[in-house]
Amino acid sequence: MNRVKRYQILCKLRDNNIRPVIELVYRSEFELLIAVLLSAQTSDVQVNKVTTSLFKVVNTPQDMLRLGVDGVKNYIKSIGLSNIKSKNIIETCRLLIDKYNGILPSNRVGLESLPGVGRKTANIILNVVFDWPTIAVDTHVFRFCNRSRFALGNTVLSVEKKLLSVVPKEFQRNCHQWLVLHGRHVCRARQPNCRVCVIKDLCEFKEKKRFIL
């Protein structure tokens, strides 16, 4: 895909959603971190269901640590990987208290030192909380970038690097959210909704015609 077409796509996504927001519900930086940790292999809708109850009881690292692994697990048992997520959350809270005075580190190295926090999670926190022009690549972004040929890559990291090299700085702050929302609600995995897609005339998806008709 050429530079002009990419720019047009980003303009259309921007005009369609001027101020995109993450669909995870949170009221603090800490709550966002926990919600993102819980979202691995789980939908945001499901995460929001469990955090609605969890955050009413605990919403600080100190309170979460007092709740303990079993207590956390009791609230999140309906979502995938609840055992390992409960342990990671408690260990993360312990590190936040012991090493960072209960405050989220504002750099990649610090965030990725927390149990369960990988590059994607760190990118989301850096972008949403600290306004870094990072572009996290999840399954929705990865699918969209390859299907539309917006940024081709065989791995999540290769797509991320490609995006950072081809997305103009003016769009980098919101690019992740635009692509996630578009991939989740329009450019869906099994049945892309090309008929209502705002960029269907620019997308280079070879099979889009059969989803438009």
Can you give a write-up of this model?
Helix 4 runs antiparallel to helix 5 and helix 8 crosses helix 10. This protein has 213 residues and is mostly helical. The chain folds into two domains: 3-20 and 134-212, Helix-hairpin-Helix base-excision DNA repair enzymes (C-terminal) (Endonuclease Iii, domain 2, Orthogonal Bundle), CATH 1.10.1670; 29-128, Hypothetical protein, domain 2 (Endonuclease III, domain 1, Orthogonal Bundle). 61% of the residues lie in helices and 0% in strands. The model has no long low-confidence stretch (mean pLDDT 95). The protein is built from eleven helices and no strands. The two termini are 24 Å apart. The chain has helices at residues 3-16, 29-38, 44-57, 61-76, 82-100, 108-112, 119-128, 139-147, 156-166, 169-185, 208-212. The protein is elongated, with a radius of gyration of 18 Å. Its cofactor is [4Fe-4S] cluster. Belongs to the Nth/MutY family.
Q: What proportion of the residues form beta strands (DSSP E)?
A: under 5%
Major sheet summary line: none
| Coarse morphology | elongated
Task: Extract low-pLDDT stretches.
Answer: none
Structural class: mainly alpha
N-to-C span: 24 Å
Provide the succession of SSEs. HHHHHHHHHHH
CATH class wording of the largest domain? Mainly Alpha
Q: Determine the mean pLDDT.
A: 95
Radius of gyration: 18 Å
GO molecular function: 4 iron, 4 sulfur cluster binding; class I DNA-(apurinic or apyrimidinic site) endonuclease activity; DNA binding; DNA N-glycosylase activity; metal ion binding
Organism: Blochmanniella pennsylvanica (strain BPEN)
Pfam families: HHH, HhH-GPD
Protein name: Endonuclease III
